[in-house]
Amino acid sequence: SSALRLASRLLNARKVVLLQTSGMATRGQKQSDEQRLTELHDKLSQSKRVLVLTGAGVSAESGIPTFRGSTAGSWRGFTISELACPEAFQRSPSQVWELYHYRREKSLAAKPNPAHVAIAKFEQFCLKRGIDFMLATQNIDRLHQRAGSSRVIELHRSLFLVRCTACGSVTENYDSPICEALRGRGDPSPQADSTPIPEDQLPRCAGCSGLLRPYVVWFGEPLSEGELSSVQEFANKSDFVLVVGTSNAVYPAAMIAPDARRSGAQLAEFNLDVSCSSSDVSYFVAGPCGSTLPKALPRL
Ligand code: BJW
Ligand code: ZN
User: Where does the Deacetylase sirtuin-type domain start and stop, copy by copy (predicted)?
Assistant: First the structure.
């Protein structure tokens, strides 16, 4: 029934690749799926400009939970919009730091998966072939860079950037733990110890000893205008935009693919399930992107 739901939501897509959606696919269906995948692979290698746009689903197979959908994680029963906002940090810097400490440690312990690697290898392929390439990610875990991607725009910045709430200075920080008081804290279970950590024991600025905050883009905060417009400009001139592992539900990132589509780009989506932009796509490749991307993306 989930395959049926997927198929019916995809009626608008002109080319649908349904890989691994059901064990009941006939041999004929499987062959035409493979043909479409080969067609996508060939079109990508003949493109002049390609944007890859990724979201949390690309890191799901590295063990990092997503925010929405069947692979969503939960931290003490909160939704992401309840904690990823300036108001939550004002109300309880300790609680918000526990969440981000937990996610920093989880990302540091995680390894890039075959989806990250396929994207990094595709970048190498593009470089060699003179194809203009850009990777824009909503993820803050740095797994793309660790897989070898170099042209990465981090739309929501990074878990490993901090900003001083007093003097405004921004620094990179990979300390584990980021401060002694957070050691062993951040357990996601609702029963976990949530005794507030005194503010003077939370991460502090080396320059002015002000309170540091995670420098990610929270709800209600603007993305870097320069970065966003460079991604949008690139997208609008691309032959292909690959939309990978994102629900495409969070703005302004969610506008990039539909805008590019209106400017003439073809969209190819890689997701376990349909997302907000699926009805616009030329190719929908269903399944875990760690299995599907290595088949679809050309490499040297
Ligand atoms: C797999 C898979 C596998 C799983 N293989 N696939 C209308 C218009 C414009 C704005 C708004 C609007 N309505 C509301 C807003 C405001 C708001 C917003 O968009 N809200 C929506 C919820 C409606 N946007 C903002 O506030 C943004 N700022 C802004 O608008 O500023 C305006 C402004 C201008 C000038 C001055 C001041 C303000 C900022 C948004 C920042 C969001 N940040 C977060 C959290 C912070 C970082 C963090 O802690 O991580 O970023 S929210 C959270 O969602 C996170 C993600 O990057 C982001 C997107 O999620 P993503 O990546 O799509 O993940 P999921 O979980 O949603 O989806 C995973 C997908 O993968 C699913 O589809 C699965 O099926 C799939 N999947 N496993 C393939 N193996
Ligand atoms: Zn400072």
Answer: 30-300
Mean pLDDT for 227-244 is 98
Whole-angstrom CA distances from 103 to 69, 131, 141, 175, 192 are 19, 35, 8, 13, 15
In the block, residue with structure tokens 């949530």: 194
Q: pLDDT tens for residues 180-212?
A: 999 999 999 999 999 999 999 999 999 999 999
Is pLDDT above 60 for 13? no
The structural domains of the chain, with segments of one domain joined by +, span: 1-64+112-156+224-299, 65-109+157-216
Q: What is the CATH number of domain 1-64+112-156+224-299?
A: 3.40.50.1220
**Has 156 been annotated as catalytic?**
yes
Alpha helices in 133-224 (DSSP H): 143-146
Best substitution site from 96, 219, 276, 284 to test ligand 1's pocket, by max atoms within 8 Å of Cβ?
219
Residue numbers in the known binding site for Zn(2+) are 164, 167, 205, 208
Q: What is the rounded average pLDDT for all residues in the chain?
A: 93
Ligand 1 atom closest to 251 (CA):
19
